[in-house]
Amino acid sequence: MYEERANLRATIDASPLWDVDVATRKALFQPMLKKLNGREEPAGDDPAEAAAVDPKLEETYKRVWAECFELFPTEDATILSMAFFQAAAAYQPDPTREKDSFCAYMQMAMRHLKAEDARKEAQSLGIMDVSKETARKVRQALDYMDRMGYTSAMVTGDPHLEKTVAQAARIGQRSLHEALLNKDTLVSINTERDDGTTIEIVDIAGLVKGASKGEGLGNKFLANIRNTHAIIHVLRCFDNGNITHVDGSIDPVRDKGIIDTELQLKDLETVENRLAKTQKQATSGGDKNAKRAVELLLQYKAALEQGNSARTVELEKEDRKLVADLNLLTDKPVLYVCNVDEKSAVTGNAYTEAVKAAIAGEKAEMLVVAAATEADIAELESYEERQMFLEDLGLEESGVARLIKSAYKLLNLETFFTTGADESRAWTYVRGMKAPQTAGIIHTDFEKGFIRAEVIKYDDYVALGSEKACRDAGKIGIEGKEYVVQDGDIMHFLFNV
User: Fold this and answer.
1) Which pLDDT does position 377 carry in this prediction?
2) Domains of the chain, with CATH numbers?
3) Considering the entire predicted model, what is its pTM?
């Protein structure tokens, strides 16, 4: 099915209709758009307009029209027609892009049209009048439903919220919403649930020169960073005259340098304060640990004074324990996210290459994401649509998915699973943990009374389809206390307390 749709998209994209100049196509499709804007019946089943503009276009137009309706059979006919005529009137293939697609262009038009209809409908239902907190909870509930595949739901404890969810369902913003009102299955949703695999990403306001001395948000900003486990630094790597930059020009390396300098200055202050105290301990008390701590602090001081981050200092595991309580800002793992335009989403651009060169020696990760495109992808209703859109752009997975994976890698985290008759759960653990320690993540008694673990490899479970099938095929391993858990392992712990 998916292959057939891919072939159909390729046929549409290769149509000779796009060889016709834009002015001719506008003359052809603008009258039809006017009819549809008045919500008249779709005009696409009558090619008379095409023949009137250019008789040669009639057959081509009829074929592309039929192919688009075949490609999107579940779409509302009026929305589909409007999107087709809008896209067909303006589409200009771009030979500079590796993957340029009319279908993606048309999908974008459909999303905007449906969003506008949904907005108007929401206003008429009063959904736009709810508080921001209620709106947030509604979005959480609907997102949860979408991820879990529930066809109907209610949110407990808030009658107003339940009503709002029901109203949102009537708009048909997601594929499951219409089904939601016609199914009997009711699922209570706790929108605040922590499933054990949550990574919280906190948006911290920007920082200005002099923050280390209290300028701008100053110490408040730095305190917010100190409470995090890692830093995701978003850098602007695109040109757009309509979006101004505080410094008047686009230079991600400069922007990175401003942040780095302020964090390094704050770390230098922390190191110097600690050094003064530790040197006294080392000289007066004969404390061996204090003497070693002084040596480590001097290494940090030298690096910071040279304009390098603390993470560039190589320390042994035992040495790191001596200075761990410093909680240096520039010692935290960092991921640089380069925000680019759509054309640069796959290959990057000159800005991202400059960032790559700038971070080469500082043990940092880099990710290229087109944020505006990600917003468009998030609006798509089905997994298949999202994959089609990504494929048209030349991407294998969304930037959000890549960001989550990068965040896990940055924090040295992996995931194991537990599954049973009632539910399946994902659990996050630190890479390198042994079976008893991961059992303790579920419950401390599991670690205290650990006997052994039954382990199914993820690929085996997916291939065979069930625990029973894996057991019958001899794909369940019996592991003891020294087993190092692997990413994706499906675990069943045996314990006795």
Assistant:
1) 76
2) 2-120 (no CATH), 126-180 (no CATH), 199-409 (3.40.50.300), 413-495 (3.10.20.30)
3) 0.57
